[in-house]
Amino acid sequence: MNRTLKQRIGTALVGLALIAGAPLASAKEVVKIAFLAPLTGAVSADGIGGRNSAELAVKLHNADPKSKYEFQLVALDDECKPSVGVQVATKASADPSIMAVIGSYCSAATIAMVPVFIRFDVPVVVWAAVLPEITYGQKTDNINRVSTTLINQNRVAAKFMTKDQHYKRWAAIYDTTDYGKSMFKYFDKFLKEEGGTMLASFGVPPDQQDLTAVLTKIKELNPEVIYFGGLTPLGVRILKQMDQLGIKAQFQGTSGMVGPSFIQGAGASLAEGVVAMYDMKPVEELPGGKFFLEEYKKAGYNEPFAAYGPYAYSATTLVMDTIEKTGPDRAKIRAALRKTKDYEAIVGKISFDDYGQNTNPTTTKYIVQDGQFIDWDKSEYATGKRKLKGR
Amino acid sequence: MDIGFLAQYVLSGVMLGVVYAMVAVGFTLYFGVLDVINFSHGDVLTSGAFVSLATYLGLRAMGIESPAVLLAVMLLAGLGAMALLGVLVAKFFVLPLRHAPPFITLLITLMVGVALRESIRLFYPSGSNPQSFPAVLPNTPYHWGHLIVRLDTIILIVTGLAVIALVNLFINRTRAGLAIRAVAQDGETAKIMGINFEWVVLLAFALGSALAALAGVMNGLYYNEINFGTGLMLGIIGFCAAVVGGLGNIYGAILGGFLFALLQTIVVVATPSLTAYKDVFAFGVIILLMVVKPTGLIGEASSERV
């Protein structure tokens, strides 16, 4: 008796609370969007930076009184692993309350998600992965990408290193994921076109710690440049072990290692003079860069937004702005996203081609100077005050 | 091939072998005294390295600069903390399950390992990123033709070999070592002879875990980098080395460790284009060896199996 009374009172209270809270909560219709990123594991710094940036975009959007919908970001962790990626992609795609998926960072995980996305025909905007096949591997009506493919950065890199810097002999180390292999494939192709020589190439698993045997072999071959296609942790190891073995070659990286964690890992003095291509201008120079920097700082995140934060932010605003126009309907969102043309994002204008690929690649050459990745054209290396190894 | 490069390969192979052997010796110790496989061993190694790194950062923040003092306190903290951790793992996870099926212990230790690994990743500041490990050893490079050897590498190799030798001496020449061997041969009889069984098990776990911590610190000093997953592969390799050498036999563990390093290095030297498959090759050979000689290269005396 006493118990049922308590339960009734409880129910009544909950009901009251619901009624009282209702006007506040249901002022706008809530729309869910999923954000996929490696939130744990060795490259989680990039994933968390992206997640924070996407969250920031949602927060700012929701704070806007003119917006029709209130967005809710569902962040899922793919651990940079293809197997986990398929799971979370399925989870997000199969949930009818999720209107669009933004993801992911790692190419190896994202390419594994593609068939899932196609099967569920969910609207997707990839925010960071650069493997060409994600958009160009098949023609879909639902997969789009704001970041660019890795083709262009390798074209720019090959041309820059051969024609501008007059290097001739390379050795390459790449990680044995789809990402690393594809990086190497395109660089090797463009290098041959530019007349450079690839003396040898070594595929290593991304989590391998000891590279001394590989590097000793490279030392024996004596290349001028060591090309690296892979992500930050492996890049840090290679650079450190090159130093231990006294290898004097120039170190040339790719977009997957641009960011503060590379310098933090390798140390500023070792990282000095490392070249890498990355498909974005320095944040301060982006159209919305200053705004983004200020807002990110204001939001007070503990982690830096990392290399692809501005892309994550842009992908999220693009998805939200599209849904504002179409309403929460996957088919309409899908069609509207593909028609994106000259969308003003903080990274610049975004336009998708027939494959959903953003056609505004802005490959920028980066160099580490005094513990920071900076635009080559603004560095002391470009003016000749400092020089790359062997120049 | 140039003799300098050959020496360089040998040197890096030996360095790898020393670390593998140290990890393998730990596995063998646990198995020897208690017939358990302790899969948290690799993550204990990582934890030891992280404790030492945190100690280093703390000391630097206090303004201590002397490399000798730094190294001594780092080792003391890392090895001490892990010895204690080893004791705790043995006391609360392994000993209570002595009479349970062995796979339960195996699972428990596996989970302890995961918990350790994830704790580092979550609770150490930006623990998911690779951490720079300080080079506190003198790293003067010496050149002989194409061979470049840094003083720290020599110190590490010598230390590793010396520690393995010391552990061997400890097991074979001291009273405590005698007790460990007695328990390893026959726990029940050892108890009847007045040996404190629990004490011996705890000692073996403390010793094995401290050894893992030392391997972790050495690994960090050599590669100047540690990450929360450092111990994962080292644990697997160390375990394989211990098994292929003959679980429970300290010489077998050492042999297994060096064998694995040799296999990995050979692939890179002989077939550069197949570097990606070096682990496939190394583990493949290990599988073959296990099929041919399931008791390990230096098989245990069969008495224990009776």
User: What oligomeric arrangement do these chains adopt?
Assistant: heterodimer
State mean pLDDT of chain A (0 to 100 scale). Answer: 89
Gross CATH architecture of the largest domain in chain A: 3-Layer(aba) Sandwich
> What is the CATH architecture descriptor of chain B?
Orthogonal Bundle
Describe the structure.
The complex is a heterodimer of chains A (391) and B (306). By secondary structure, chain A is of the alpha/beta class. Chain A has 2 domains: 28-148 and 283-360, Rossmann fold (3-Layer(aba) Sandwich); 151-278 and 365-378, 3-Layer(aba) Sandwich (Rossmann fold), CATH 3.40.50.2300. Helix content of chain A is 46%, strand content 19%. Chain A has 14 helices and 14 strands. Chain A has a 7-stranded mixed sheet with strand order 7-6-8-9-10-13-14, sandwiched between helices. In chain A, strands 2-1-3-4-5 form a 5-stranded parallel sheet, sandwiched between helices. In chain A, strand 13 (364-369) and strand 14 (372-375) form a beta hairpin. In chain A, helix 2 packs parallel to helix 13, helix 6 packs parallel to helix 7 (178-194) and helix 13 packs across helix 14 (330-338). The longest helix of chain A is centred in the first third of the chain and has 24 residues, at 2-25. Chain B is mainly alpha-helical. Chain B has a single domain (3-127, 136-297), classed as ABC transporter involved in vitamin B12 uptake, BtuC (Orthogonal Bundle). Chain B is 73% helix and 4% strand. Chain B has 11 helices and 4 strands, in the order H-H-H-H-E-E-E-H-H-H-H-E-H-H-H. Chain B has helices at 3-34, 41-61, 67-94, 102-123, 151-173, 175-185, 187-192, 197-223, 230-245, 250-270, 278-292; strands at residues 131-132, 141-144, 147-150, 225-226. A two-stranded antiparallel ribbon of chain B has the order 1-4. In chain B, a hairpin with a 2-residue loop joins strand 2 (141-144) and strand 3 (147-150). In chain B, helix 1 packs parallel to helix 5 (151-173), helix 5 (151-173) packs antiparallel against helix 8 (197-223) and helix 6 (175-185) packs across helix 8 (197-223). The model of chain B is unreliable at 301-306 (pLDDT under 50). Classes of the chains: A alpha/beta (391), B mainly alpha (306). At the A-B interface, strand 7, helix 8, helix 9 and helix 10 of A face helix 1, strand 1, helix 9 and helix 10 of B.
